[in-house]
Amino acid sequence: MSPSARTRHSSTAKRKLAHEDEARVSALDVLRLLGGGILLSCLLSYFVTETSLVWNLRPLTWSASRWHDLRAWMHGPISLTPAELSLYNGTDVSLPIYLAINGTIYDVSASPSVYGPGGGYHFFAGNDGTRAFVTGCFSEDVTPDLRGVEEMFLPVDDDDDKDGDGKGDGDGDGKGDGDGDDKKSEEGGRLSKAERKIRREQEKRLARKKLHEAVAHWEAFFAKNGKYHRVGTVRYDEGWLERLPRQELCAAAKRQRPRRGGSKAKGR
What angle do CA 49, 55, 57 make, to 5 degrees? Predict the structure, then answer.
C-alpha cells in the first residue's frame, strides 16, 4: 500500500471513530435528558401533592371512573367549591367518589361499598366532614367547622359539673367564685381562683393540641392509604366560616370528655 493510500485509510478510520464517538455521546445525552426529566417530574410531584413522587397515580386497575382518574392526573390537582364537591358522592357512576378532610379532597372510589350509595359511610361522600371524623357524631357533624370541638378534650370534674351552666367554669371570669377562694385553697385544699384559671388555660392549650392531632390522624389515614389518593382542595368563599351557625358540641362528644380522675364524663 502506498503512503498516500495509507494516509487516506488512516483518515477514514479516524473519521469513523469520531462519528461513532459522536453517536455514543448523543445517546448518552438522551439518557441524561430522560433521567433529568423523570427526576424533575418526581420532585415536582412531591412538591405539589406533598405525598407522592408519581402524581398520586395508582396502579392501572379498571374501574368506572378510570378515565376520569387519568384525566385528573393529566390536568393536575383540582379545586372544587363545596357545591361542586357534592356532585362526587357516588350517585353518578361516571364520576369518582370524593370526600374531603380539613379542606383536602381524596378520591375514595376504591371503596364504593364503604363510601358509595348504601355504604356505611356514604354521608362523607361529596362532603368535608372533618368535624364528624373527630367527634364521631355522624348525623349532625358532617361539616368542616371545627369551632368548639376542642371542648371534648377538656377534662371535667364535680366543680365543672356544678359550674357548667355559666356559674363558674374555672375560666377565671369571676362567676361563681367567691372572695374566699384563696382561703379555701389554703384551708380546704381547693385551688384558688388564680390557680384554677392557670390550670384551665393549660388545659385549653392541651385540648387544642389534641384536636390538631385528631385531625392530623385522619389526614394521614387517607394520605397514606394505598387505595386512596389526594386530588385537590376545597375552595371556600372568603368569610364562609363566620356565616355558618356555631354548633354546640354533640352529646356523644360530651360523653367522651375525660374526668380529672381518668374516667369519661357521664352523659346528661
Answer: 130
